[in-house]
Amino acid sequence: MINKKEFVSIDIPDFEDDFQFGWKKENEKIELDLLLEAIYQKYHYDFKDYSRAHIKRRVLYRMRISNMENLSQMQHQILYDRSFFETLLMDLSINVTEMFRDPSFYLAIRKKIIPQLKKYSFIKLWHAGCASGEEVYSMAILLKEEGLYSRTQIYATDFNTIALQKARSAIYPIDMIKDYTSNYQKAGGINSFAEYYTAKYDSVILDSTLKERIVFADHNLVTDGVFGEMNLILCRNVLIYFTRKLQNRVIKLFMESLTPSGFLCLGTKETLQFSEYAQFFSSIVEKEKIFQRKPDDNA
Amino acid sequence: MGTITGALLSKPRVFRCIAIGVSAGGMHALSTIIPALPKDFPIPIVVIQHISPLSDNYTTRYLDSISRIHVKEVDEKERLRRGTVYTAPPNYHVLVEEDETFSLSVEERINFARPSVDVFFESAAEVYGDSLIGVILTGANSDGSKGLKKIKEEGGVIVVQDPQNAEVEGMPKAAIETVTPHFVLKLDELAPFFVKMAKHGRKKTELIPENI
Ligand SMILES: C[S@@+](CC[C@H](N)C(=O)[O-])C[C@H]1O[C@@H](n2cnc3c(N)ncnc32)[C@H](O)[C@@H]1O
Q1: Domain count, chain A
Q2: pLDDT digits 0-9 by tens, B167-191
Q3: % residues pLDDT > 70 (chain A)
Q4: Cis (ω within 30 of 0) for the bond into B115?
Q5: Could you give the CA distance from residue B144 to residue B142 in angstroms, rounded to a whole number?
Q6: What ipTM was assigned to the predicted interfaces of this complex?
Q7: Are residues A168 and A280 in the same domain?
Q8: CB–CB of B75 and A10 under 8 A?
Q9: Once rounded to an integer, what is the mean pLDDT over residues B33-51?
Q10: For residue B62, is it within any domain?
Q11: How many structural domains comprise chain B?
Q12: Per-residue DSSP letter, B80
């Protein structure tokens, strides 16, 4: 038997006010819906089918550091102050990226995909959601080393124009170089990574010839259309922010943008498995999430 | 510690998630707790452990091989289920949605960590409110303290491993300095505690004894 005296009773609130808890939650949900609707109507960026937990986290973060009381107040600010919207847009689009992120992915590209691409006289490549460009330049380096770059056209797109600006500049903080060098080596790099950049103060600028075959463009995966006849599409760590419904829409967009037998590369934790369009793709390197569109007649 | 030894829960609660944050020393801690749980343990458990971004998540496979309960890495949009321990994938933050499915994010490291314990705890507190148990185990930094505070604020139950009993005391100590836990427990008390809490919802009133 349990003797009551052995225990210290401490205050675990009982939430007798479950009702009030639910009431507050409900209002928060309505306010967030309205905020996203306001952003859509005013600025035509559609976040309604993004992961709610992610959006909520970022929005509440901005609310706190802007000393706002609630999301209704934020909605007003969004509507009347464009620069505040732009700040929130930066919060919502996670521009975090790296050169040769997931080195084993680039190694797989080198070993399994490059030999296929070598068969073509001209190669079209699309980086969707390229953020500040590190992934695009990583690929440019790889294609150069494989002797394919001069016959490649790379389209690199994002809906965040500030990130695109940074991508065009090809200037990155120097303190990342150690990590990037190690990633590059693990990714099967055949030169010294230092050949690809010049250090200046606390930045590095990438070799300008890496830019030659890249076009950076503003493109929104939710609202914009097809990019034609791609041999390879990379869209890594973007779909994780989308609901299943939106993922389906975007995968359809990719399917329609790929040549028959074109390749689609997703992030390490993204998959086609649950997509309505899974049947139109075969998995080439399971672990690295590299897929290939089936030629039309097999679909 | 030892002042807070137990708590009286006057109202039955059905706990719907146990969130565990752990860093250095985690391998030993988790291999003590997880294998001691029954196969059909009714509360989904989510483990946010700091690991190298390049890790192949060996810990997860190892834990699965020595446990009755199923242990697996979180997949995006996967639904939380009973009888399962979910571990955070290397280099991703984990969040939970209102519909009890997981979301992943690669946003900046928080407290130098991705996955970060705070990120999951805060998100889970929003979704689960008072039906969440938050647990901080051994570790070297202070990740998880803020999240644990948030769990308590939302009505959840919070537990910290006794720092004196932890392989690395930093993380549990930081947690206790930030927020007073409902329970401070030793490693081998945790699995029985979870089992006890799983039964709690079925009884009207229950005492949680000091040494379960
Ligand atoms: C986490 S970054 C991924 C960067 C890079 N692909 C990588 O894996 O390292 C996600 C990027 O997707 C972009 N993004 C999010 N929603 C988008 C949309 N609807 N259309 C285009 N880009 C989008 C963000 O601006 C951000 O730059």
Answers
A1: 2
A2: 999 999 999 999 999 999 999 999 9
A3: 92
A4: yes
A5: 6
A6: 0.91
A7: yes
A8: no
A9: 96
A10: yes
A11: 1
A12: P
Q: Show residues of chain A in contact with B3, CB under 8 Å.
A: 8
Residue B206 has pLDDT above 90, yes or no: no
CA of B61 to the centre of ligand 1 (A): 31
With 0.90 as the threshold, say if the pTM is over it: yes
Size of interface A-B (CB pairs under 8 A): 97
Residue A182's domain is classified under what CATH number? 3.40.50.150
Indicate the pLDDT class of residue A71, thresholds 50, 70 and 90.
very high
Closest residue in A to B54 (Cα) is A102
CA separation for the pair A234, A31 (Å, rounded): 35
- Catalytic residue, from B67, B116, B142, B143: name it: B143
pLDDT of residue A141 exceeding 90: yes
pLDDT at B80: 97
Check CB contact under 8 Å for A4 and B207: yes
**In terms of DSSP bridges, do strands A152-158 and B206-208 run parallel, antiparallel, or are they unpaired?**
unpaired
Does residue B140 have a pLDDT over 90?
yes
Q: What secondary structure letter does DSSP report for A295?
A: P
Residue B209 clears pLDDT 50, i.e. is over it: no
Is A98 part of any domain? no
Nearest CA distance, A156 vs chain B (angstrom): 20
Helix (H) or strand (E) holding B19: strand B17-22
Q: Which domain holds residue B115?
A: 12-202
- Asked if residues B4 and B182 have their Cβ atoms less than 8 Å apart, the reply is yes
State which of A27, A58, A92 marks the end of a domain. A92
- Domain span at residue A181 reads 103-298
